[in-house]
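Contributing new records

If you add data, match the layout below exactly. Sequence lines come first and carry their own label; structure lines follow with theirs. Keep one chain per record. Anything else will be rejected by the validation script.
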Amino acid sequence: MAGSRKVIITCATTGAIHVPTMSPHLPLTPDQIVADALGAAEAGAAILHMHARDPEDGRPCPDPEVFIPILERVNAETNAVINVTTGGGHNMTVQERLITPLKAKPEMCSLNMGSMNFGLFPVLDKFETFNHPWEPEYLESTRDFIFKNTFADIEYILKHLGEDHGTRFEFECYDIGHLHNLAYAVDKGWVKPPFFIQSIFGILGGIQPDVDHLMHMKRTADRLFGDDFIWSVLGAGRHQLNFATMGAIMGGNIRVGLEDSVYAGKGKLAKSSAEQVTIMRSILEDLSMEIATPDEARAMLGLKGAANVGF
């Protein structure tokens, strides 16, 4: 039953999943990414999950010369927690994915908790033409692609970002097995509570958006981690708003943003990530839930503080 409590809204602004053809509102240039992030923070997002794009053609970009200035500009204008991707883009090595995080030393990074099929190729059936030649090639490549995060990769990231720089993690769990991978990392002493677990539904190759799956994911996390975790829910694509709402009612926090869905309702393209944050904030407040501020989120997640980052 919903009650008065603090809910963390995470907003992921651009990501590496959607291609520019899918929405004219997808932030691609540094100016667009900064504006979208700041708008989401103003609307109520306590955490901003950040990627960068090549400003020329919008492809995912790990280059710190592009990425770090974006982080600096956002950090200068908002108190929101800045969460830097370690997922990067498809076909990047773990070393490429860590170039910016290791320089930035952020309060928080995302961390996919396992290797997995990550199929984006069905989007090819929805468009006859694309804005850039790289887009159909990028989507088609995911038909024969595994996103690689082995136990060695996970240990490396947790040591070099977590242990060495005090960065904490948004543990992205795309399936039940990813929760057990996290439990193994906990048993090995690679990570300490509180654990921020992002349950992700709707990616082809991961767990799908079924209510029974949502409940099973929560029950499994409860059994493995007890009171040592803070749960959040992400529904991809058209499932974003309804799954976030169900997750919040079940005691979870939520993630929205144009990385996860380009929609703000059935058949309606979202004009910004802030539009999605605003919709969900209204739903949560109507359910008598309060929206966590950035500093409240820091306290809940045990973060090191914005003064201790490298940007």
